[in-house]
Amino acid sequence: MSKVKRLTILISGNGSNLEALIEACDTNRLQAEVGLVISSKAAVFGLERARRHGIPTKVLSWSEHRACGGSRSTYDQQLARCVAASHPDLIVLAGWMRILTRSFLDRFPGKVVNLHPALPGAFPGLHAIERAYTAWREGTIRETGAMVHWVPDEGVDTGPVIRVVRVPLRAGETLEGLTERMHTAEHGLLVQAIAAALAGEVGSLGPSAAEARADH
Predict the structure, then answer these.
(1) Measured between alpha carbons, how far is 62 from 57 in angstroms, rounded to an integer?
(2) Dihedral of the CA atoms 105, 192, 124, 178 (nearest 10)?
(3) N or C: which end of the chain has fewer CB within 10 A?
């Protein structure tokens, strides 16, 4: 019988994607377990989600670290020590709102993946859904989507893609409606991508059979 893989999840907010991963592990859609959830903020609901499932949590507040004179590098060194202690097979950035430095990434080569709510090459960084919605209203795009990609370096949403889902934009849709559909698409995408990553798929920056379309 194969060893159950361990996931360490990094969050900064509500944690709905974390919930999707926990549910997938509990129902054996993922042959894995969440061993630790780390948040960069203290008062976020994602921590409560983890606690309800009996999953250990840790808060490493970036704002407090910075207020005490800490640097990005020293924060990431501390983060790396916490993550290493959980012995993860894969580290998942699920709504993690910080760019990781080499101080962290060099400790875990080939083990860090990120979920980003945009298609490859489109709308890197913050507020991707809002920016896509604005672009659609301006007539420059007809669809958006989400991707899960490897994080080999400090590039912003630039690593090799594992899985992509495309989300068509609908006439008359509000930003709130699009956001809700995007979150639903992200949940399914993330579970599929983590399964692929645990299976050793390297990923590709080009279009492939790893793309899906969310029409709901």
Answers:
(1) 16
(2) -150
(3) N
- Our answer to whether residue 116 is catalytic in this structure is yes
Beta bridge partners of 36: 8
Tens digit of pLDDT for each residue in 130-142?
999 999 999 999 9
The string over 177-209, giving b where at least 16 C-beta atoms fall within 10 Å of a residue's C-beta and e elsewhere, is ebeebbbbbbbbbbbbbbbbbbeeeebeeeeee
Residue type at 177 in one-letter notation: G
Give yes or no for residue 209 having a pLDDT over 50.
Answer: no
92-131 confidence digits (pLDDT tens):
999 999 999 999 999 999 999 999 999 999 999 999 999 9
**Predicted pLDDT at 200:** 86
Mean pLDDT of the chain: 93
Cα–Cα distance, 193 to 5 (Å, whole number)? 14
Alpha-carbon distance of 93 to 142, in angstroms, equals 27
Global confidence as pTM:
0.92
Give yes or no for residue 10 having a pLDDT over 80.
Answer: yes
